């Protein structure tokens, strides 16, 4: 265990495997927002593999963090807290009263871990271990937080009995609220961008296929998380002779991401399903025109947005791109600014306030029951 300004006791203790630049997915963005705005009564336990070299520089700060390797889980019994918050079904080892000490458990479900699309008769696609881990955390949780209404509906459709203890809080993030009216770039709406992980659920291959025959370029900012999937994409590009219209920019973070969002004429987010989707918020905050799928939480975030498509119907991606290309400057400006007006729903301040209220409600409920908080 590595103590990074970690105290003896916390009101709320978050358990996560993503924090700082220890990133797997969107959960790290969420955790980093929590950390940025946290008070000293809130702590963070970061789980890591024992063969991993830790660097203090990769953490978002130098206080209230405890790094625990998976070989040291027995020492979790030493922790003192009033409310535990788990962020991943894989942490089912926390469901141990020697660790939880009969304290309230909040389980934040960043994504119900089903296949996409899922079959209600077997939503986990035969993966019984994931099913058991997920159900174990859900059963023990006193409160289950979903990060969008679509995720809440998905969870309660699969497990109706869980509905009474579900709670919905939208994710949020820090951003500079745009102050200038959107000005359409002096370009011919030919340069579209994709920004995200290389994962088949993100719909990149379907998007590449949609660009065949279009008078447009696709700029891809991603890593190489799935080499097999990348080979599929590269093989299609070569077979379709599209090397001159599909461009790879590598993984973009920080200033590179800023430049990417400013360069493209529109961002395409073709995910087959997204429980939330921070990348949509980022595009909105940069006043980058947005084309996205109508899956998951996207319709909640964007409202009545006209540039949407069905990711399971690839031809609708091409139709949406052509519709955008042919739309007027006035309409694009109108729809882009309509998205900007929705940003206050997804600020970090709003999110933090709602979580603080939830934790206070749990604490007050315990006090009303005469439970002594240590």
Automatic annotation (TrEMBL):
<dbReference type="InterPro" id="IPR001296">
    <property type="entry name" value="Glyco_trans_1"/>
</dbReference>
<dbReference type="Pfam" id="PF00534">
    <property type="entry name" value="Glycos_transf_1"/>
</dbReference>
<feature type="domain" description="Glycosyltransferase subfamily 4-like N-terminal">
    <location>
        <begin position="60"/>
        <end position="175"/>
    </location>
</feature>
<keyword id="KW-0808">Transferase</keyword>
<feature type="domain" description="Glycosyl transferase family 1">
    <location>
        <begin position="184"/>
        <end position="328"/>
    </location>
</feature>
<keyword id="KW-0328">Glycosyltransferase</keyword>
<dbReference type="Pfam" id="PF13439">
    <property type="entry name" value="Glyco_transf_4"/>
</dbReference>
<dbReference type="GO" id="GO:0016757">
    <property type="term" value="F:glycosyltransferase activity"/>
</dbReference>
<dbReference type="InterPro" id="IPR028098">
    <property type="entry name" value="Glyco_trans_4-like_N"/>
</dbReference>
<protein>
    <submittedName>
        <fullName>Glycosyltransferase family 4 protein</fullName>
        <ecNumber>2.4.-.-</ecNumber>
    </submittedName>
</protein>
């Amino acid at each position: 265990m590595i103590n990074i300004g970690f105290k003896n006791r916390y009101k709320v203790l978050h358990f996560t495997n993503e924090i700082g630049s220890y990133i797997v997915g969107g959960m790290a963005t969420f955790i980093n927002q929590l950390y940025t705005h946290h008070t000293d009564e809130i702590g963070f336990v970061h789980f890591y593999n024992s063969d991993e070299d830790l660097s203090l520089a990769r953490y978002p700060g130098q206080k209230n963090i405890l790094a625990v390797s998976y070989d040291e889980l027995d020492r979790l019994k030493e922790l003192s807290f009033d409310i535990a918050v788990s962020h991943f079904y894989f942490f089912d080892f926390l469901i141990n009263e020697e660790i939880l000490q009969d304290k309230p458990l909040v389980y934040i479900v960043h994504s119900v871990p089903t296949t996409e699309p899922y079959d209600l008769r077997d939503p986990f696609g035969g993966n019984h271990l994931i099913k058991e881990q997920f159900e174990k955390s859900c059963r023990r949780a006193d409160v289950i937080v979903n990060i969008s209404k679509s995720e809440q509906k998905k969870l309660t459709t699969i497990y109706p009995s869980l509905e009474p203890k579900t709670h919905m809080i939208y994710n949020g993030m820090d951003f500079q609220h745009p102050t200038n009216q959107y000005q359409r770039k002096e370009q011919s709406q030919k340069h579209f961008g994709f920004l995200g992980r290389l994962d088949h659920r993100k719909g990149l291959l379907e998007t590449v296929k949609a660009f065949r025959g279009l008078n447009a370029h696709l700029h891809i900012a991603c890593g190489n998380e799935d080499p097999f999937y990348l080979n599929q994409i590269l093989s299609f590009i070569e077979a379709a002779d599209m090397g001159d219209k599909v461009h790879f920019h590598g993984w973009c973070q920080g200033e590179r991401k800023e430049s990417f969002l400013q360069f493209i004429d529109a961002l395409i987010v073709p995910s087959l399903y997204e429980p939330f989707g921070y990348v949509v918020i980022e595009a909105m905050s940069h006043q980058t025109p947005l084309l996205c799928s109508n899956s998951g939480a996207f319709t909640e975030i964007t409202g009545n947005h006209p540039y949407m498509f069905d990711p399971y119907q690839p031809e609708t991606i091409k139709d949406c791109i052509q519709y955008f290309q042919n739309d007027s400057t006035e309409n694009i400006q109108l729809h882009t600014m309509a998205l900007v007006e929705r940003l206050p729903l997804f600020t970090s301040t709003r999110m933090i306030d709602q979580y603080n209220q939830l934790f206070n409600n749990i604490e007050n409920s315990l006090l009303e029951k005469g439970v002594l908080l240590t």
